[in-house]
Design goal:
The complex is a heterodimer of chains A (371) and B (397). Chain A has 371 residues and is an all-alpha fold. Helices cover 68% and strands 0% of the residues of chain A. Chain A contains 16 helices and no strands. With 397 residues, chain B is of the alpha+beta class. Chain B has a domain of 241 residues: MetI-like (MetI-like fold, Orthogonal Bundle). Chain B has 13 helices and eight strands. In chain B, the strands form three sheets. Chain B has a four-stranded antiparallel β-sheet. Chain B has a two-stranded antiparallel ribbon with strand order 4-5. Classes of the chains: A mainly alpha (371), B alpha+beta (397). Chains A and B meet through helix 2, helix 9, helix 10, helix 14 and helix 16 of A and helix 3, helix 5, helix 6, helix 12 and helix 13 of B.
Chain lengths: 371, 397
Amino acid sequence: MTDTVQNYKPGEHPSLPPPSNTVGPIAWIRENLFSSPTNIVLTLVCAWLLYKVVPGSLNWMFFDAAFTGEDRNACKAVADGACWAFIGERLALFTYGFYPAEQRWRVNLSFILLIAAIIPVLFDNIPFRKYGLIYSALFPFIAGWLLIGGFGLEPVPTSEFGGLMLTLVIGVTGIAFSLPIGILLALGRVSNLPLIKMICVGFIEFIRGVPLITLLFIASTMLSYFLPPGTNFDLLLRVLIMVTIFAAAYMAEVIRGGLQAIPKGQFEGADSLGLKYWQTMRLIILPQALKISIPGIVNTFIGLFKDTTLVVIIGLLDPLGIGRASLADTKWTGLSTEVYLFVALFFFVSCFAMSRYSLYLESKLDTGHKR
Amino acid sequence: MSEVAVQQPSSGGIMRLWNDKESRSVIVQIIAVAIFFALFFYMGRNAVSNLETLGKDISLDFLGQTASYDISQRLIEYDSRSTHFRAMLVGILNTLLVAFCGIILATVLGFLLGVFRLSKNWLTNKLAYVYIEYVRNVPVLLHILMVHGVIIHTLPVPKNAISVSDSVFLTNRGFFVPKPLFEPMFWIVFGLFVAGILFTIWFRRYAKNVQDLTGKQYPVFWISLGAIIGVPALAFLVLGMPINWDIPELKGFNYKGGMVLRPEFIALWLALSLYTAAFIGEIVRAGITAVNWGQTEAASALGLTRSRTLNLVVIPQALRIIIPPLTSQYLNLTKNSSLAIAVGYMDIVATVGGVTLNQTGREMECMTIVLLLYLTFSLIISTFMNWYNKRIKLVER
C-alpha cells in the first residue's frame, strides 16, 4: 500500500469486484456441492449413483440399440441393447389400434381437430377466441362422429379402437365431461338445500372410497343388470361413463375447496345486488373459485389421463394392452422393457406438459395476491 | 310498474310458490329426491327382472362352497378345498398386508425425498426432482408391470440366486428370507420391549410435567432409547439369544424353508411405495417450505439449537399442513393396491371380484362385497388420520 492518496471523491469509488473465491464455477461447486461434510457425502453418493445408472442406460437405449431389423434375432445380431425396431414396426398398431387402415385419415383428422380445439382453451390472447371456445365445446361430438362414423361415414365398431387413440378418446372425453359434472356436484355439496347436499355428499364419498378398477369391473360385468332387458350398449361407452363419473367426484372435491375459499362477502355482495342463485354462481363465485382451483383441476386431469391405462385390465387395448398383446408374437418375445419405456415416454410427455402448463397458468392468474 | 301489479294475481299459485325462496327450495329438493328414487327403483326393478330371466337369485350361500383355486401368497392357512369365504379372508389380509407395508415404506421414502428436495446440495436436489417428476407423470400400473418385469426377467433362477450373506436369496421366484423361530425365552424379551414402550409413554409425560413445573430437563431421548432398545437387547444377550433362524436352502429347483416373499407381492409393494413416495415427497417439501422463515429466525434468536428448532418449531407446524394430503395419499395407495390383479397378486379384487366371481357367476354379490370392503378401509384410514389431525391441530383462542 504505497499509494495512499485518495484519487476519488468520497462516495465515488467504483465498486470493487467480489473476492475471486466467491464467484465463478469453482465457488459455485464449493457452495452447492461441498459446503459441509454431509454435503460432500451426499454429492459423492449421488455421483456414484449417476455413474452406475446413466452410462449403462444411455448405452442400452441409444448407443447399443438396434433401430431397424426384421425380428428379435436380427436386432440381437446388430446390437445387444434395446430393440427399437419392434416399436417402429408396430407404431401404427400403437397409434390406431385395430382401426381399419383405409379409415385412418379420420383418426388423423380428429387429432388435428383436437389440437385446434385445445389451442383456444390454453391461450387467451388469440384472435376470435370466443368462437374458438364454442368450437372446443363442440369438439367431443365432432370427434365422436368422425371416429364412430354413421351419417355418411362408414361406421367403425368401437371394439376396433385401440392404442394411443383409445387413450386420447377416454382422456379427452373424461376431461371434457368431468369438469361440468364436477362443478354441479361441488355446488350441490356446498348448497343450502339439505337433501341435495346429502345426495351429492353420498355420491362423491362413495366414488372416492372405491378404486377405479372396481368401477370398471362393474361397467364390464354388472352394469347391464341395471338396464332394461335386451339393452346392450357398448363396452367403451360404459367405460367412458365410469371414468367420467370417477373423475367428476374428484373434480367436485377440488372445486369445493375453491368454493370454500371465497369470502362470505362475495355471496352477500351478490345478494345485495339482487342477483339470483345461478347468476351469482356464474358471474361472481365460479370465476373466482375455478381460478383458485386450477392447479387441483389440472392435477385431476393428469390423474385421469394416467388412469386410462387401467382399461387394459378389463380387456380394452390401450397402448399398454397393444404392447402386451404384441409381446405374445414369437418374433418379438422378451421385449417388454422397450414396450413399457415407450408407453412411459408417451405418458410422461403428456402429463409433464400438463403440469408445466398448470404452473404457467398459476403464475399468470396469480393476480391480487402478490404484495 | 302498474302492469306488473296487475299481472301478479293472475300468475297463479304455482308461480307464487316458485317465486318464494323457501317454498322453491322445498320444491327443488322434492323433485331431486323423487328423481333419485325413481332412478333407484327403476334400476332395482330392472335388476330383479333381469336376474329372474337368468334364473339367478341373490344369496351369499356361495361363500360356503368350496373354492377350488390356489393362492400362493397367504397369511392364513388356505388350500384349494377351503371355502370362498376363506379365500375372501385371504384376499382381505393380502390387501391389508400390501397396503400396510406400502404405507410404511412410502412414508419413509417420501420424507427422505422431501428432505432431499430441500437439500442445499445441488446434485441431490436435482436428482430428487428428476425422480419425482418421472414417477409422478407415469401411470402406476406401468410402474407395477415394470418392477414385476425386472424381478421376473432380470433376477436369476433359484439355482444362481443372488445371496446376501448366505441367508437372504433373491431369485425370480421370490425373495427367500430366514424365518425367525422363537424359543419360549424370547417372549421375555418381547415383554420387556412392550414394557419399554409403555414406560417411555409414561416417562415422556412425567418429564414434560417436571419441565413445566421446575424447568428441569431430563435426557428424554436417551432414556427412551435405553428403555425400548437397550433393556430388551441386554436381556436378549443375557438369555443367550433365544431365537433361531430357519434359513432357506436350495433343494432341487427351488428353496425350501425360511419365508418367501412372492415376486407379485414385491412388485406391487415396491411399485406402490415408490410411486406414492414421489407424491409424499412433494407434500413434505410443500409443508416444510410453508412454515414461515421468521419462525426459524425467531427460534435461533431464542437460542434454540438447530435440531431443537426443527423438532420444536418447524416440524410441528409443517405436520399440520402435511397430514391432510398425506391421508389422501394413504387412501390412494390402498385403493391402488387393487391393481394387484395385473401381476396376479391375490388381493380382494383378484379373489372375490376375480376368480370367485368367474366361478360362481355371482357378479352382484361379489362386486357389492368388494365395494363395501374398500369403503370400510377408506373409512377406517380417514377416521384414524382425522383423529390424528385433530390432535395436532393448532389450538386457537
